[in-house]
Write a structure and sequence with these properties.
This protein is 61% helix and 14% strand. The protein is of the alpha+beta class.
Length: 298
């Protein structure tokens, strides 16, 4: 399953667990006020926000996460404020002073902290819907959102789009059932992910169609990469429900040129894919901007 998809799920689990731990921390405060017979650094120390269970989780996230750092930094600031206002209440109680302002500040800080958590969780849940539940691969929406950024350096870095379609996939569903078909799709996605470089991305485009953004210096390198994937998939087996299934795919490959909209690139790749389907399948068709199309299969 896609690494990012797994990371989102892991982040949600960690966020939920550590948020629950912080509510328990509130109960710990009450016990501390009532008994005051132990030292609790997660309440009394100046760096208490780093010592509580939520703070430990948050610090790990801040070290590992880059894309969502603005959410985490906002949560961190609100979390710090919660602990700071809590210590102010503790100090007022210690001095046996009236402290309505401190309680008000603590309430405001708690509400702001909860709101920042809600915003982050909503963001994660929305992001999660951009990934295919069956294969874990990002869907077309992720490609749409990231394509212009990738396209900005397309000429220098050599960016190619590979649009592939499983050959005779309907027969898999008709002969073995849709559960087996789903297993085939998951297996294909796993093999694609395992055999593209970290700088490259695989997407589920729809149905039995997938997209891969490849990095290559020229057409020859891109064709070799596409062919390597085609041979890997042709040699792979999916074993499910007592059946052993082998599949092949046909693909259209084209270079992405700077400034090109995704729609134009996809139309060109789809044209090459169509020619491959009608020319015998199980092949890679390379098409250029002039719509010259050649079979590069080996």
């Amino acid at each position: 399953m896609n690494r990012k998809f797994r990371e989102i799920d892991a982040t949600l689990r960690g966020l939920n667990y550590s948020t629950d731990a912080h509510f328990k921390w509130l109960v710990t405060i009450l016990r501390f006020v009532a008994n005051r017979d132990v030292e609790l650094p997660e309440i009394t120390h100046d760096d208490a926000h780093h010592r509580c269970e939520f703070g430990l989780w948050l610090n790990n996230q801040l070290q590992d996460e880059q894309n969502d750092s603005h959410y985490l930094l906002d949560i961190s600031a609100k979390h710090h404020q919660v602990h700071q206002t809590c210590r102010q209440i503790m100090a007022s109680i210690e001095r046996q002073e009236e402290c309505p302002a401190s309680y008000d500040a603590f309430e405001v800080a708690l509400l702001a902290f909860t709101e920042s958590l809600s915003h982050y969780k909503a963001h994660l849940l929305q992001l999660r819907t951009s990934y295919d539940a069956l294969t874990g691969l990002p869907l077309r929406r992720i490609l749409d959102e990231s394509f212009d950024r990738l396209n900005a350096g397309a000429e220098e870095r050599g960016l190619y789009l590979l649009l592939l379609d499983i050959d005779h996939f309907k027969k898999v569903n008709d002969n073995y059932g849709h559960l087996t078909g789903d297993a085939v799709l998951r297996s294909l996605a796993l093999h694609l992910e395992d055999n593209v470089r970290r700088s490259e991305s695989a997407y589920r485009y729809g149905g039995e169609e997938f997209i891969i953004l490849l990095r290559a210096n020229n057409d020859r390198e891109a064709a070799a990469a596409a062919e390597r994937l085609r041979h890997i998939i042709a040699d792979a087996e999916t074993i499910f429900g007592g059946h052993t299934i082998r599949i092949t795919f046909t693909s259209g490959l084209t270079r992405v040129h700077r400034g090109e909209p995704l729609r134009e690139v996809l139309e060109r790749a789809d044209m090459a894919l169509y020619r491959g389907k009608h020319g015998g399948r199980n092949c890679t068709m390379l098409i250029n901007r002039n719509l010259d199309c050649i079979n590069v299969s080996t």
